């Protein structure tokens, strides 16, 4: 892959990773509710899950979805349903989690965050776009791995920004009434991310 193409890929990976979407809305809310360190497994789960999704799309899963549109509809229904469930959980949260939470609510785990990428509509859009634009038929294996590696490297600093911003807001949102409205707003924003995938 030429250097200028790889640099363009890094820019695309950064912009698509740092812009608002389901992952970043959840990370902002997690930073507020649980702090930075308790959200680290969530961040690593996003990188691992999205990296594996990129590899699978690059090695043929995208073509399978094109050939069988019903699979895409199933993924949209599953993804939309799960996003609504997560949006409800965030919106109904009324207290911040400390080192140990007694509210029965914990931050998203590594495994749950990784699995979520497979039903996340923005992750699918980014994967298909990245592989169709930046992978090369001249070096299919190498280019697919390079695209996945670029996203994994850029992803962690990008998502950390959202968690960091949430962590900064913790003191301001320590007031239960402010936290309630913040979580309702975050849950509503997460639910709104469903609309682009309905097209």
Structural account:
The chain is an all-alpha fold and 199 residues long. It has a domain at 50-93 and 108-199. Helices cover 77% and strands 0% of the residues. The chain is built from eight helices and no strands. It has helices at 3-18, 22-34, 36-67, 69-92, 110-116, 121-134, 140-169, 176-192. Helix 1 (3-18) runs parallel beside helix 7 (140-169) and helix 3 (36-67) packs parallel to helix 5 (110-116). The longest helix is centred in the N-terminal third of the chain and has 32 residues, at 36-67. It is globular and about 55 Å long. The two termini are 33 Å apart.
Short summary of the structure?
With 199 residues, this protein is mainly alpha-helical. 77% of the residues lie in helices and 0% in strands.
Residue stretches low in confidence (pLDDT < 50, at least 5 long) are 98-104
Terminal CA distance reads 33 Å
Shape type: globular
Helix and strand string, N-terminal first? HHHHHHHH
Based on secondary structure, the structural category is mainly alpha
The total strand number stands at: 0
Rg computed from alpha carbons, rounded to a whole number of angstroms? 17 Å
Strand content of the residues, in percent?
A: under 5%
- Summarize model confidence as the mean pLDDT: 79
Classify the helix fraction into a percent range.
over 70%
How many DSSP helices? 8
The description of the largest β-sheet is:
none
Keywords:
globular, mainly alpha, single chain, 199 residues, 77% helix
């Amino acid at each position: 892959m030429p250097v200028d193409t790889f640099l363009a890929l890094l820019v695309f990976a950064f912009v698509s990773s740092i812009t608002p979407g389901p992952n970043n809305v959840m990370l902002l809310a997690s930073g507020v509710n649980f702090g930075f360190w308790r959200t680290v497994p969530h961040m690593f789960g996003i990188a691992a899950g999205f990296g594996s999704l990129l590899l699978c799309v690059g090695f043929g899963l995208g073509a399978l979805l094109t050939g069988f549109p019903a699979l895409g509809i199933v993924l949209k229904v599953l993804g939309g349903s799960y996003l609504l469930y997560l949006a409800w959980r965030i919106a109904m949260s009324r207290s911040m989690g400390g080192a140990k939470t007694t509210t029965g609510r914990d931050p998203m785990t590594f495994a749950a965050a990784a699995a979520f990428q497979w039903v996340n509509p923005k992750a699918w859009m980014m994967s298909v776009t990245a592989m169709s634009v930046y992978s090369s038929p001249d070096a299919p294996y190498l280019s697919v791995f390079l695209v996945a590696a670029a996203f994994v490297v850029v992803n962690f600093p990008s998502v950390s920004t959202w968690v960091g911003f949430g962590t900064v807001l913790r003191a301001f949102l320590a007031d239960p009434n402010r936290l309630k409205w913040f979580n309702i707003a975050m849950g509503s924003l997460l639910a709104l991310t469903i609309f682009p995938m309905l097209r």
